[in-house]
Specification:
Helix content is about 30%, strand content about 15%. It has about 350 residues and is of the alpha/beta class. It has a twelve-stranded mixed sheet with strand order 9-10-11-8-7-6-5-4-3-12-13-14. It has a two-stranded antiparallel ribbon with strand order 1-2. A hairpin with a 5-residue loop joins strand 10 and strand 11. Helix 1 runs parallel beside helix 2 and helix 2 runs parallel beside helix 3.
Length: about 350
């Protein structure tokens, strides 16, 4: 049903299109094993040629069309979005699109210290920083390039000083890798006023060697934190929210878990994903996308884009996480670094 002139497009399961995650580059300055393992994405890996990556103007055309069909929230991702030159200019362009009222970014934080102020001034609403451990040795091993923890902490401080709030910290938890640091991260968030979200290690893509045994269930994470800091469940802030939220019983902030493996949330998913080369995906675990770049570069008329976006979403039936256990045959899936997580 149209609302305030916006056509609220729904898929076959009644899920509305609300969120658009945009990968602005397939490149990254980290080589996290669960996302972009160095043995696959080595020095000879062929990234997308520059002329195949969407321009800022092309991205904004897609955002404008998506906003006309119900999208209100845009998140910029990568690869690592801050390696895209002048990304703050894109932020300003997206901020000018009617209907978009929330512009967020997910970053590894390695170069955030020098960018935070410009991002805020350009119109970025808030930022999420990936922070898998507060142990420098573990952190360096997990980012795959030996980047020091202090560099990311400086970026978080700069984002806080710039007013990019609330700051969220994402930690992908792996059994035997960083699960010993769950309480340290929770305590850090409590003391600094940041929202820490612990993410179950997911089988995104086919290169990260995922095993179910490596997953630390969200329920175990909540139990670990709750034993030290009693927790109380919170309701969702908006339709399609993926994190299960908890407040500390003493009022000192909140924490969240994202349980795609053990507690799937497909039924409420409102996200579409756009890759750096202009392919649209309707699930993080999809096997194929829909080419928007060809339409963009063939015509200055947005009618074709509107028709394709509407058709793709209306035909959508994705619910991989709910079906995971019944899918016996391995599937080739897009990599997290390609579609932006």
């Amino acid at each position: 049903m149209p609302t305030d002139g916006v056509a609220q497009v729904e898929d076959r399961l009644g899920r509305r299109l609300r969120d658009l995650r945009i990968s602005v580059t397939d490149r990254c300055n980290f080589r996290c094993p669960y996302c972009m393992p160095a043995e696959v994405f080595g020095k000879d890996y062929a990234f997308l040629p520059r002329d195949e990556i969407l321009t800022f103007e092309e991205i904004v055309r897609i955002v404008r069309v998506a906003a006309a069909q119900g999208v209100t929230k845009v998140r910029l991702t990568g690869g690592e979005p801050l390696v895209r030159r002048e990304v703050e200019r894109l932020v300003a362009m997206v901020a000018a699109v009617d209907g978009v009222d929330d512009i967020a970014m997910t970053t590894n934080g390695a170069t955030l210290a020098g960018k935070a102020k410009a991002l805020k001034e350009a119109g970025l609403t808030r930022i999420t920083v990936s922070l898998d451990s507060l142990d420098d040795q573990v952190f360096q091993a997990m980012n795959g390039v030996g980047a020091p923890l202090a560099r990311v902490l400086d970026g978080i401080d700069a984002a806080s000083a710039a007013g990019l709030a609330p700051i969220k910290l994402n930690a992908v938890v792996q059994r035997g890798v960083n699960d010993g640091g769950i309480l340290d991260l929770a305590r850090f968030g409590r003391e600094r006023g940041f929202v820490v979200r612990f993410i179950e290690y997911m089988d995104v893509g086919t290169t990260n060697g995922w095993r179910l045994d490596d997953v630390v269930p969200a329920a175990e994470i909540v139990e670990t934190i709750g034993a030290e800091y009693p927790l109380q469940p919170l309701g969702a802030q908006y339709p399609g929210e993926v994190a299960r939220r908890y407040r500390y019983a003493d009022g000192e902030g909140e924490v969240g878990v994202i349980a795609s493996v053990t507690q799937p949330f497909c039924q409420g998913c409102t996200r579409a994903r756009l890759t750096a080369e202009g392919k649209l995906y309707t699930c993080l675990f999809a096997t194929a996308g829909h080419d928007l770049r060809a339409i963009l570069r063939a015509s200055g008329d947005d009618a074709g884009l509107e028709a394709l976006l509407s058709r793709v979403w209306r035909d959508r039936v994705d619910r991989y996480s709910e079906e995971r256990a019944s899918l016996m045959a391995p599937r080739e899936r897009i990599e997290m670094s390609y579609v932006g997580g």
